[in-house]
Prior knowledge:
Elements: E1 12-23, E2 28-30, E3 37-43, E4 48-55, E5 68-77, E6 81-89, E7 98-105, E8 108-112, E9 116-118, E10 121-133
Antiparallel strand pairs: 1-2, 1-3, 1-10, 3-4, 4-5, 5-6, 6-7, 7-8, 8-10, 9-10
Amino acid sequence: MTETTAVPDVVGVWKLVAATTTDASGTEVAVPYGPRGMGLVSLTGDGRMMAVLIDGRRETPDGAKREYTSYCGNYTFDGTTLVTTVDAASDPARLVPQVRTVRFEGARMILMPPTIERDGVPVQRALTWEKISAVSL
């Protein structure tokens, strides 16, 4: 008999609870969206999603740019990879498939975009989400 593994249920509304950027050695090099990152992602049962993330500080330090992103589109999820075909975004550079590796730690979902280079150094972001509703927006 073939054993099947259930795909985790990502449908619902998730709030951002942590965000990190680490280098290849695992050293944290930045905190995406500042020390008070805020975000929501809603994933529907019929494959539609939206995400909004922002530096949630009331004021940013002088000269600091407030980090913000939002996008939406159709998504697929196979249990380990979430791919969104973006059709609207705050940044036109996001109008390409957004691929996220997904893992779960207890009730939390950790999304990891592909490694990028920042100032010539490869870095990896990890966004940790906690489900706040099993019903999507």
